[in-house]
Amino acid sequence: MGKLLYLISTSLDGYVADENGNxxxxxxxxxxxxxxxDAVSNVGTMLMGRKLYETMKVWDDIPTEGTSxxxxxxxQAMNDYAKIWHAANxxxxxTTMTEVTAANxxxxxxxxxxxxxxxxxxxDKDFDIGGPHLVAEAIKAxxxxxxxxxxxxxxxxxxxHWLPKNVKAKFELVDERKFKNGFVHLHYRKI
Length: 191
Description:
Elements: E1 4-11, E2 15-17, H1 30-39, E3 43-49, H2 50-56, H3 76-87, E4 89-93, E5 105-108, H4 113-122, E6 126-130, H5 132-141, E7 146-152, E8 160-161, E9 171-178, E10 184-190
Parallel strand pairs: 1-6, 1-7, 3-4, 3-6, 4-5
Antiparallel strand pairs: 2-8, 7-10, 9-10
């Protein structure tokens, strides 16, 4: 049985992007990126909203080996994440898009939490969900199994928050890790 994972980098005050939608402050170090790769190594399907898809589809063009390609000198962690991206099925939820171009990607108009819960339960692989608006629907439906928050030591003072408002739930701390660049990972499981 798989799990539905929510892994996201946030500012210390809990934002995934600033008031202008920027998230360049969350660029992971090689150490953090390798850790993220390990955390999602069992992910077989990625669920995402339109904005996240538009950001992430660059991984179709990042090489899985070597340093040539659209980015100047992809690192080993980037090559490794590109392998994860290429291997995973991807479902994009959007009411405005007409097509998706990334490999192994399907487009859905509506998010059905019960259907996702059944797919996750029937899978040997985990599912990853991203994009705070889509994630908010999954959290409100109570179907997210694990939360991985990577905290960046910066305060933004506003923007797009990583968790929805008016949701109550209890969690247990499964793991924590501090990285050399000051980032911190907190891993919680829903109880």
